[in-house]
Write a structure and sequence with these properties.
disordered N terminus, 17% strand, 5 helices, alpha+beta, 9 strands
Amino acid sequence: MRVTSPIRRRLVRAAACTASGVFALTSTIGLAMADGTRAAGDGFGPGPVGEHTIQPLKHECTTGEPEELCRNIGVTDGWYDGKDVKFLYTQNFFCDPAVASGASNGCEVGEKFKNVPPGTTSEAFTDPLFIPVPLFSPAPPVQCPTGPCIDHPDNIDLSRLAGALGKPADQLKDVPLPGHDHIIADRNMDRPEWWPVYVVGVTNPESFKQIEKGKDLATLQRLAADPNSGVTTPIPTNVFLWFQTLAGTSDNCPPEHAPDNAKTSTTHHSAPAAVAGRPPMPTGRH
């Protein structure tokens, strides 16, 4: 595994509110993983090429460095507990290759991953990312519009949802990633980790407005429980994104020195509870 370059470490530090001990430690780990050599078909999205980002950024490079030096580092908006937060991405996506996909990058929606990314002990050491997707016209502005978004897959296989989307499966095997927003239920102490992606389809514009107003998992759960809301229960995928919430967004910046127990592996999560008569609703830690 190659040692993380000084410029890459500097880019990450510049993007954060504070260079806390936890941030520096865990971000460096993630970046070292991103810089490692990857074999074709291992599920990881393309790594950095030279000193340049491997895909165009939908969001401005917020590290203070020239755009061409972002190298898989970027920021998107997100929601947590009714508040606006920022997500800092420091390596590309992972799509479990054990799940069949017609997309060129191996990513799909409709079947849950069978394996977590290498280096992660189990699903218990992840937190779910819910992405509400507007399925109506005209589509409203979202945090990641259709097309390239930092460290997201550019395209995806939606063929398992052909019946619900009303299109032939063959036309959905390799399509652009739909525009979406981001909701999390736990900040993981602002440390980076792998987040399994769950899609929430929304066909009712009024319900989508409620999601945008609520900005939390509770709003998704309430609407998904209403059969007339036009909001689906979370749909599993084989996609994982690697990011952390930035300290100082919605919450105060953490102390300069993190507690000793914050430097250990991610706290064990409770298993998601199933809603009677419905698929399980994944939750974050509380």
